[in-house]
Amino acid sequence: MPELPEVETIRGDLDLQLRGARLESVTVSRRWKSLPHTRFHENRSFERRLRGTLVERVDRRSKYLLFQLQPPATLIVHLGMSGQLLLVERSAPRELHTHAVFRIDRGHELRFTDPRMFGRLWLVGADEVEQKIGPLGPEPLSAAFTWRVLATKFAKKQAPVKAALLDMKVVAGVGNIYSDEALFEAGVHPLRACASLTPDELKQLAAHLKSVLRRAVKSRGTTLSDARYADVFGEYGGHVPKVYGRAGAPCLQCGTAVVRGVLGNRGYHFCPRCQR
DNA sequence: CAATCAACCTGGGTGC
DNA sequence: TGCACCCAGGTTGATT
Q: Rounded to an integer, what distance in angstroms lies between the CA atom of residue A5 and that of residue A173?
């Protein structure tokens, strides 16, 4: 569910709310503990090792949230498709599919819920983070990400550009919504082979990717009508996609019906007239 | 190595 | 009402 702008919204709020807070206790559901260690680093001491730790800072890399703790350790959280982190009062009724509860001082709880259970929770040493979440390409909003990075990575790539944008090794944190949006705004057809893009198209693509991600962060993410992304306070995002999820509806630029295609088991959306 | 695809899960919507 | 699909914002391991 959440991509870079949604995860970044959550990160910012958690950093403000939890910096300096102590995790009084941590409980993980039996169901979640039964997951393979690729999704839950169960070492029997997850709860015990977290109890009493201090949250020093909350970082983000790609779609991963990194809780930097004291004594030194990193809690890695990935929300998968349907994961949520909710900051609530302890007395509030427990949400369905709650898999982990972090009791915070001052009477609050951080609850991790995830109906589809594609999320991950890992507790690792600070030096183990890279190997756990990597290898990852550059952060698209960093100065290190330019059209020249794309030019290098695309030079010998025959895969469709849509697939490449979803590849975390090419660029980190971009998912199905924002790859569709960036391609639409750049006027590039999703099925174009990476290596066929001209320098001008690469410039457009890099610039529009940065632009749409920045706008989405400012709007606190995207919440589709049929899905339920919410921030840590349960509030929805205000960003509205231009093509994603609009199959059959008129293109906002030319009025042509937006087309939905399937690539690698995932739907994508584009305007057959504006995107070449 | 690069590209493609099935699998991992649950729940909501649709059409018969 | 029941049921059999189809769809969903992600990642990854197996297979070509």
A: 9
Residue of least CA–C1' distance to B4: A264
Name residues whose C-beta falls within 8 Å of residue A142's C-beta, 6 or more positions apart in sequence. Answer: none
Q: Does residue A2 carry a catalytic annotation?
A: yes
Alpha-carbon span A69 to A179, nearest angstrom: 33
Q: Mind listing the pLDDT tens digit for each residue in A42-88?
A: 666 999 999 999 999 999 999 999 999 999 999 999 999 999 999 99
Residue in the structure block whose two tokens are 């009062």? A89
Categorise residue A107: left if φ over 0, alpha if ψ from -120 to 50, beta otherwise. Answer: left
Catalytic residue status for A63: yes
Residue A195, CA: closest nucleotide via C1'?
Answer: B2
Mark A224-255 as b/e (b = at least 16 C-beta within 10 Å). Answer: eeeeebbbbeeeebebebbbbbbeeeebeeee
pLDDT digits (tens, 9 = 90+) for A117-135: 999 999 999 899 999 998 9
Peptide bond before A71: cis, by omega within 30 degrees of 0? Answer: yes
A3 an active-site residue?
Answer: yes
